[in-house]
Write a structure and sequence with these properties.
Strand content: 15-25%
Strand order of the largest sheet: 1-2-3-6-5-4
Order of helices and strands: HHEHEEHHHEEE
Distance between the termini: 4 Å
């Protein structure tokens, strides 16, 4: 839930610490006492922390959230996505947000169903929702249209819904497969 803050926190903290250390080290060159410069720069760093965190977060988020395209699974570089994306996925369009993603990718139905079966075999015993109910959490075509309106046009009308295991914190995925297009649409959420 708070993972999007970790990178901006680290960058802001280490950046401000570097500024405090640099100001303290350079104080004698400007005729100032190191102890006095250290105290004042530390106080300024405390007050600059929150605005700095917001600014760094804004810049960093522009590079890690949004719409991206990948040729295949191997080119996706986010461990949160790896957990919910089949290895055989190709021609991947990903709309990534802090709490999950939407994806459109190509994959054959037998490979997709084998991957979903594997996910249920690995994590089904910990799922908060039974497999039979997970396949209809989004109400089929209506849920699909509601979820992907604006993401991919035109939307297919022949989708089959597959639900994955749902973790106690709500993390999980739902997949819609269009046999006519050979395209998979996925909605995944994580914490």
């Amino acid at each position: 839930m708070l993972w999007p803050l970790i990178l901006p926190l680290k960058i802001t903290f280490w950046g401000l610490l570097a500024c405090v250390v640099a100001a303290t080290a350079l104080a004698p060159r400007f005729g100032r006492k190191r102890s006095r410069v250290f105290v004042w720069s530390a106080v300024l760093a405390v007050f600059a922390f929150l605005p700095g965190l917001m600014g760094v977060g804004f810049v960093v988020d522009a590079f890690r959230f949004g719409t991206f395209h990948y040729d295949d699974y191997a080119h996706v570089n986010d461990f949160r996505i790896y957990r919910y994306l089949p290895e055989g996925a190709t021609d991947i369009t990903l709309e990534q947000a802090s709490g999950g993603f939407q994806a459109k990718f190509s994959m054959g139905r037998p490979e997709l169903e084998a991957w979903i079966d594997e996910q249920w075999e690995l994590y089904g015993d910990r799922s908060e929702v039974a497999r039979e109910k997970a396949n209809s959490l989004w109400n089929g075509q209506d849920g699909f249209v509601r979820e992907f309106r604006g993401f991919a046009e035109p939307l297919p009308t022949d989708v089959v819904e597959y639900g994955g295991p749902v973790a106690p914190n709500g993390a999980g995925f739902t997949i819609w497969y269009s046999a006519a297009q050979g395209v998979v649409y996925e909605r995944a959420g994580y914490w």
